[in-house]
Amino acid sequence: MITEFDIKVEKMRKYCLFADRCHRDVRTKLIKDKIYGDELEQIMAVLIEENFLNEERFAKAFVKGKFKQNKWGKKRIMMELKQRGISPYCIRKGFEEISDEEYWEMARKLYEKKFDLVRETDLYKKRQKVLNYMISKGYEYEVVKEFMG
């Protein structure tokens, strides 16, 4: 016999299968669905035990996705992961998905593309606009400075 609890667990399994989720996302969803206390904790335990919830896997997927698709830098990715309550260990594991060469190459390409797009005749102002853009994407000042020559 399928219980109400089983139905709730199955709904959360589907939610986790759609995309990797962190614990905070699932907790928020459960609370939104008016599931609290022991029942919430039991559902979380089932999802973790069955590997539907895995913060290391989430961190790796998040880092890879935000870097490759959104072209975010490490600072922005780290800030987002911390806001989601991801542990420093999982964040470190996530960043193992990006090699230093890939990171520098992405930063260089992004810098050059933005530099070409900015319509500014004053070279100082143009560089400043590109620097601000790169910082907003989460790239470190030291990295961007290398391309400013």
Automatic annotation (TrEMBL):
Extract one GO cellular component term from the record: cytoplasm
What residues does the RecX second three-helical domain cover?
54-92
Q: Which residues form the RecX third three-helical domain?
A: 101-148
* Protein's GO biological process: regulation of DNA repair
Q: Where in the cell is it found?
A: Cytoplasm
Give the matching InterPro entries: RecX_HTH_2nd, RecX_HTH_3rd, Regulatory_RecX, WH-like_DNA-bd_sf
* Subcellular location, principal: cytoplasm
Q: Does the keyword Cell wall biogenesis/degradation apply?
A: no
Domain of life according to the entry: Bacteria
Q: Which UniProt keywords apply?
A: Cytoplasm
Q: Which family does it belong to?
A: Belongs to the RecX family.
Name of this protein: Regulatory protein RecX
Per the UniProt entry, what species is this protein from, by scientific name? Portibacter lacus
User: Taxonomically, what lineage is the organism?
Assistant: Bacteria, Pseudomonadati, Bacteroidota, Saprospiria, Saprospirales
Gene name per UniProt: recX
